[in-house]
């Protein structure tokens, strides 16, 4: 197959490698000329995961037309804040039937729309759209360490198409019809990873981390149920699986970002020092928009938003979280 991958950050590079190793020809769209030159001439991304030699099946370009010409499938891996811009940029170069899979994790600011909904609005064809998410740190996937993921689409045919496209001996793919649940889990787990980073950053231990992950899962499940997703998705790879990976991994940018904020650093400090996205920073705001729309209570998300965007004191926020009225363990799911 000829596959166009749009976005050459860590995850776009890792997915390109996975597809190349799987025997597909990959046209990888990158923003910067130096990234394109390095991938085409030296088979390495100079900025992300640069120690890995990339498959010779990967050809990079800064041209959308060049990447998308003749593509049998399109893989979207730009930051979630750029979903609408990316959808508009590719629309002129794909057919009405070209299958498109979104691998970014977030929710659109303002509208509260999920990436798949943004793409449906911009390029149409709900049935050809899919999303991919799971506990998949690029640093491990690119080194072909055994991982698994979920591919969700409203069309079983599209889900199966991408399941086959991505499956390799080291990357196991499952299908689902719950695009809403998978995408909300993907955005949510990043916020909880920031909370875990904040918690370690102020000196709390593993009990607090487990509490945040578990109650974060309860928040995630309430929002998924309210938005029309299937709460059982939260028990799967996109929910619990990715929550565990992101909250516990040394690779997690979101957790690292939380630790930095606890030390008084800002989102700009994180971005300048890593050139990477901590998607949870935006998601704590966008998920709150959705929660307000659906009348769902998200106490941990609200604390993260207050600390990241309003300068709330982390220790005081933790005390406020702990001193809320006592509750039943499960409600609203
Ligand atoms: N890194 C992972 O392990 C991983 C795994 C699964 C999903 N994801 C998701 O994939 C998406 C992309 O993340 P990543 O890790 O590949 O990125 P990254 O953090 O490694 O790099 C940032 C990327 O954003 C691009 N970028 C920044 N500003 C841009 C702009 N104005 N226009 C176009 N591109 C711009 C950069 O060129 C670069 O490709 C995110 O939604 C992330 O949550 C990442
Ligand atoms: O490094 P993070 O925290 O952005 O997480 C990356 C992936 O989403 C893990 O599945």
UniProtKB/TrEMBL annotation:
> Is the keyword tRNA-binding in the record?
no
Where does it live in the cell? Cytoplasm
Residues annotated as the enzyme's active site: 189 (proton acceptor)
- Which keywords belong to this entry? Cytoplasm, Lipid biosynthesis, Lipid metabolism, NAD, NADP, Nucleotide-binding, Oxidoreductase, Phospholipid biosynthesis, Phospholipid metabolism
InterPro entries annotated for this entry? Answer: 6-PGluconate_DH-like_C_sf, 6PGD_dom2, G3P_DH_NAD-dep, G3P_DH_NAD-dep_C, G3P_DH_NAD-dep_N, NAD(P)-bd_dom_sf
Q: What is its main location?
A: cytoplasm
Q: In which pathway does it act?
A: Membrane lipid metabolism; glycerophospholipid metabolism
Binding-site list for sn-glycerol 3-phosphate: 105, 134, 189, 242, 252-254
Enzyme Commission code(s) on record: 1.1.1.94
Please describe what this protein does: Catalyzes the reduction of the glycolytic intermediate dihydroxyacetone phosphate (DHAP) to sn-glycerol 3-phosphate (G3P), the key precursor for phospholipid synthesis.
- UniProt protein name: Glycerol-3-phosphate dehydrogenase [NAD(P)+]
Q: Which organism is it from?
A: Raoultibacter massiliensis
């Amino acid at each position: 197959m000829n596959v166009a991958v749009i976005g050459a950050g860590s995850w776009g590079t890792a997915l390109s490698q996975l597809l190349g190793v799987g025997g597909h020809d990959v046209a990888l769209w990158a923003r910067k000329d130096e990234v394109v030159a390095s991938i085409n001439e030296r088979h390495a991304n100079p900025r992300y995961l640069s120690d890995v030699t990339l498959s010779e099946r990967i050809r990079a370009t800064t041209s959308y037309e060049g990447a998308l010409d003749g593509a049998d499938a399109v893989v979207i891996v730009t930051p979630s804040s750029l979903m609408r811009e990316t959808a508009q940029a590719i629309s002129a170069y794909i057919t009405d039937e070209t299958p498109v899979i979104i691998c970014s994790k977030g929710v659109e600011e303002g509208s509260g729309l999920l990436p798949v909904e943004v793409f449906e609005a911009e390029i149409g064809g709900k049935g050809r759209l899919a999303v991919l998410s799971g506990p998949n740190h690029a640093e491990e996937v690119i080194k072909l360490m055994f991982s698994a993921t979920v591919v969700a689409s409203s069309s079983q045919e599209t889900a199966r198409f991408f399941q086959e496209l991505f499956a390799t001996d080291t990357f196991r793919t499952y299908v689902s019809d719950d695009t809403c649940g998978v995408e909300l889990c993907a955005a949510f787990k990043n916020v909880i990873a920031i909370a875990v980073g904040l918690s370690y950053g102020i000196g709390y231990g593993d009990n607090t981390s487990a509490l945040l992950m578990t109650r974060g899962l309860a928040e995630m499940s309430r929002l998924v149920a309210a938005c029309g997703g299937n709460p059982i998705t939260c028990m799967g790879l996109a929910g619990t699986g990715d929550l565990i990976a992101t909250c516990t991994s040394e690779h997690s940018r979101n957790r690292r970002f939380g630790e930095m904020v606890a030390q008084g650093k800002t989102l700009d400090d994180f971005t300048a020092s890593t050139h990477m996205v901590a998607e949870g920073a935006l998601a704590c705001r966008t998920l709150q928009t959705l929660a307000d729309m659906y009348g769902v209570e998200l106490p941990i998300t609200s604390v993260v938003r207050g600390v990241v965007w309003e300068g709330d004191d982390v220790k005081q926020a933790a005390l406020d979280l702990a001193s809320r009225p006592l509750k039943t363990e499960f409600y609203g799911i």
